[in-house]
Amino acid sequence: MKNKIIAGNWKMNNNRVQAEALITELIPLVSETKNTVIICVPFTDLCKAVKLTKGTNIHVGAQNCHWKESGAYTGEIAPSMLTELGVEYVVIGHSERRSYFGETDETVLLRTKAALAAGLKPIVCIGETLDERNSGNMEKVLSRQILDGFKDITADELKNIIVAYEPVWAIGTGVTATDEQANDAIAYVRSVFASKYGKTAADKLYIQYGGSMNDKNAEGLLNMPQIDGGLIGGASLVAAKFAAVVNAKK
Ligand code: 13P
After folding, report:
1. Which of the 8 DSSP states describes residue 178?
2. pTM value?
3. Is 84 a known active-site residue?
4. What are phi and psi of 130, to 5 degrees?
């Protein structure tokens, strides 16, 4: 099995004072891990996060970026504005952005391409809703999100991308996919990538699980063979809980 990539997605939480307290508490708790640790923080916390994590094993990510380099796009942030701060990762196409802010597979692709071109490593989110799962459309939805959302992504570019499988029904609900549900869905996701990029590239691709993952259920999920890590929301806001996820799989 690969080492795991564990990313915290703080969403719209933590001002600069709270961010400093959380990161300071987190640093010693995750310093021994062989896993990759990333915190994806609000734009306003990025400078502080980069400064505080310098010289540690914690990497910093943003939660979105635009596809243009500059221009009249009020409220948006260009990928190069992130890299110049020392940001390494960026979450793209989170289901909250898809459902609240009109993100589509097409804009996911544009943002991913631009992020890669700037030297960021995108964490691209996909996942089905409960209705889609219950109506037997899970595979159709996931394969559309992959085939459209990765349409122009080359095999070389894929090497710098992390995929996060986040079933929408498990996000923030306290309902986690079972170990087997998460593993099976990720196996399916990997098979779609294999059909596009070949088996070797698909096997190398890191695919995380996200959705109510926490200190209690992380070990089971991270021991599943298909699950290469986690994208953690609520539990990433508590240093001890996030550290327990990071350290769940040695
Ligand atoms: P929760 O862990 O709070 O369910 O959020 C998951 C998520 O959306 C991470 O991106």
Report:
1. P
2. 0.98
3. no
4. -65, -40
